[in-house]
Fold this sequence. Notes:
Blueprint lengths: L1 H35 L11 E9 L2 E4 L5 E4 L5 E5 L4 E9 L2 E9 L7 H13 L5 E4 L2 E5 L5 E7 L7 E9 L5 E2 L8 E4 L4 E5 L4 E9 L3 E9 L8 H14 L2 E5 L2 E5 L5 E7 L2
Antiparallel strand pairs: 1-2, 1-3, 1-9, 3-4, 4-5, 5-6, 7-8, 8-9, 10-11, 10-12, 10-18, 12-13, 13-14, 14-15, 16-17, 17-18
Amino acid sequence: MPEARRGASGARTVVLGALAPAILVLLAGACGDDDSSGDSDTDLTGTSWTLASASIDGDQSDAVAMATLSFGADGETLAGSTGCNQFAGTYTQDGDELTISLGPMTLAACTDPAATAQESAIVAHLPEVASFSAGDQLVLENSDGDTLLTYDAGMSTIEGTSWTATGVNNGQGGVESSAASEAITAEFGSEGALSGFGGCNTYGGTYALSDGGGISITNVTSTLMACEEPAMTVETQYLTALQNVATYELSGNTLTLRDSAGAAQVTYTLAT
């Protein structure tokens, strides 16, 4: 009998010994799941968003003017608008953790109190952001988990879109806006064809997009009608600027084409 009990005990010991590694594996897996539960699968790099609502005086208020937020393809810089002004800044993402630092901002006055309140909320809340969730919407939260700002997904590509120019590089390092530049249009076709009106002549060419916001514009040609100044000069500046373009930046309903050094060549607003 003692030997039988020892045998039974030994059997039980063998079974427990076999189960122990499996239990340890399950426990380790459970711990691993918990550790990764806060990670986000969304990489904000290169994404663009349009404001849906903002926390104002403790309540979520719908956007009253188009405000945007774009995360640079370099994984560091961001740009956006409040509905009244444009701003720049930097960001750092680690999983679902997000920090935002605001930089320079234009100083135009908002035209109504609701737009002023929206701008104040955006400027106050962006530096308070500690985490986010993203899907069809981008929800920015503070360290307490309170929702600060909610954005809808913006355009992710310029393919198949049409634009009206708001400024053209003058060839001396600056982008200038005028009635002549505002007559310029651009249509980025769905199969790499670029076309539009240069302010005097119609033009065409080809474009190709690449990862990280890259773009190349080639084979630019135009009709040869002569026009009065300043349309002729601005058109020449515009066609030259197109051939210098290396990257594009979308921010809500605005598009900026830049050269390889980051200098703006052309700015547009989405055609209506």
